[in-house]
User: Which sequence fits this backbone?
């Protein structure tokens, strides 16, 4: 049986062949990892033009680092002669030596300066745009990938659950974020999936708030968004709590609104459903309640080797969901000066016959008063 | 007195005018921060063509976040209409409306895809390369910047000092790294300056080792490299220790070698000295001892708003040091399978009349047995 990475590279070759391109140069780090199973820093992958693919990198990752992994056996591995060099340029030179007549490159990852350096070593070769071809292959996950996401979600749920049992009043957003990240690692994560967001009081409910030195106070909303990285796969979970004995009525009202919106989004997930329709299901209750200002441009997105992948759940999104696509559903409302609510889950799209969307992040969504 | 950021933008204008360019579009995040004092996510700065400069961004940073700061009053601030849009494209449209006839962009930051989007909205305007013009302005630091670096270094020294007083044997690289990052924040850092590196046993002495689950063992070398971020400024300090009561003779020998190389590098720092000569002073003792394989391509680099800035201290580096340029001196030797030693300081280049290089990271460089 072919190695899973070999199969993925074969699919990329088929895609290139269909557009008349003889070789592809992959430089996006998550794309290299998806196609090879390893991610040495600064690596570039040449797929084609010959039967053998080549990974050019600075140095092999250490033997015992499961996070970076080792190159598979059927992949030629070339260590860059100068550690100051650009692996993409060296890989492009290889393509020329192997008489590629066209080379598709990832124009959305390469800077103009690096692209120019590639052109100088590929005279006579047509440089084309590989665009999001590898990202497209990454959309639908296999069961090994979903298993990794499931473990990542369990770890994030555990870290969040432990935080809820500790004293929160008086602690800063920055410290709570650091404690969550330590707990993620305690439970087996390779690290946080993204910078942990903790927002208290007026910062609660914001989409991508970075922790400050503000301290948690009685009566605050507290919004937490965190995720674990496990075997390279990243999930996210976000919850909003209220600090103190009893939430104010505006807090209860706002919470119920966002909760309903999030449930509507989750329930809309199914294979064949348009991404924009999931966004509308999530967004509509918020707009109907008059929260038109300051809504995020998306209400969810794919997750995998990156925390923010295709598909996008947004009003302008094209395309439909497939089975085995993991996405977040994460509506939120932020009232300037007062704060707000965000609720964020990672789910896997599954057909109704399989029980519908699989919820990976199972921390309760009741409004807890902590 | 003009605001420091206004003065910096005036210097950039002068530089553009000297090359016949009427407007500049700055997209590198550290460059935007240097020129405006604030760093909203995804911001783009248009300098010229009119007398007023414009910052285009998604939303203003929160009022109470000193890390991101607030735009200065003499800067026009434009919030991007669509939060899904590209601030650089919106800024380029402004340049066209203001009848710029040329626009210099940062080709080393922009992807080919974004550059193409800029071209579509700048018909009739010559797009040129701003290259490293802003990075060049950032080379020599003023005393406010150096004061921030000095505090960042103090914080890193404190975090490292506390770690040395704790029990290390049996703990994993990952946990030690997280504990160091928590201590950085405890002592007032905005966060780590870069991912903290902790390498034990065979991982010790590696240039950019990422922490694994390996546990500290008796007899190990332990290499730690960390830094604090303070007002956006980043320093670094790296030390190697030995675990247990008495180092082995190969450990003492290797440590002394790297220590001597690092001292030679520090002592070579002075205004007017070629960067490559500092590199040679640091590198030569290692090569003379037969360690030619696997040496890093640089033995030091500038620090500031980014952890890895100009100048580079490497064999191929062009240019000379100036006074008030902060750099690292960080030689290391790694013996595959056995481990090694790295010693890393941040210093500010000062003329001999001012006492020579100013050492910011003052943690002892004696070989400590922990």
Assistant:
């Amino acid at each position: 049986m072919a190695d899973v990475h070999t199969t993925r590279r074969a699919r990329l070759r088929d895609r290139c062949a269909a557009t008349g391109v003889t070789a592809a140069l992959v430089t996006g780090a998550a794309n290299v990892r998806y196609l090879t199973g390893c991610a040495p820093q600064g690596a570039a992958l040449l797929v084609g033009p010959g039967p053998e693919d080549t990974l050019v990198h600075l140095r092999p990752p250490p033997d015992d680092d499961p996070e970076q992994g080792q190159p598979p056996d059927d992949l030629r591995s070339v260590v860059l002669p100068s550690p100051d060099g650009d692996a993409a340029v060296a890989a492009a030179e290889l393509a020329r030596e192997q008489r590629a007549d066209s080379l598709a490159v990832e124009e959305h990852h390469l800077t103009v300066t690096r692209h120019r350096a590639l052109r100088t070593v590929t005279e006579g070769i047509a440089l084309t745009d590989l665009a999001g071809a590898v990202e497209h292959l990454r959309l639908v996950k296999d069961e090994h990938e979903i298993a990794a996401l499931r473990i990542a979600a369990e770890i994030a749920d555990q870290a969040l659950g432990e935080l809820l049992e500790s004293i929160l009043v008086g602690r800063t957003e920055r410290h709570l974020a650091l404690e969550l990240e330590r707990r993620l690692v305690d439970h087996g994560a390779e690290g946080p999936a993204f910078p942990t967001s903790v927002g208290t009081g007026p910062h609660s409910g914001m989409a991508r708030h970075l922790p400050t030195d503000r301290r948690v106070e009685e009566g605050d909303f507290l919004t937490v968004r965190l995720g674990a990285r496990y075997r390279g796969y990243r999930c996210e979970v976000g919850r909003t709590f209220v600090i103190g004995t009893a939430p104010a009525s505006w807090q209860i009202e706002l919470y119920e609104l966002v909760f309903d919106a999030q449930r509507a989004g989750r329930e809309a997930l199914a294979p064949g459903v348009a991404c924009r329709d999931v966004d509308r299901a999530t967004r509509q209750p918020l707009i109907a309640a008059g929260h038109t200002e300051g809504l995020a441009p998306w209400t969810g997105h794919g997750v995998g080797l990156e925390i923010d992948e295709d598909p996008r759940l947004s009003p302008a999104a094209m395309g439909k969901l497939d089975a085995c696509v993991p996405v977040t559903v994460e509506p939120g409302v932020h009232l300037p000066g007062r704060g707000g609510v965000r609720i964020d889950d990672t789910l896997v799209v599954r057909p109704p016959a399989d029980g519908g969307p699989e919820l990976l992040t199972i921390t309760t969504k009741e409004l807890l008063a902590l």
User: Anything to note?
Assistant: Chain A touches chain B through 42 residues (CB under 8 Å). The longest helix of chain A spans residues 143-164. The longest strand of chain A covers residues 221-226. The mean pLDDT of chain A is 93.
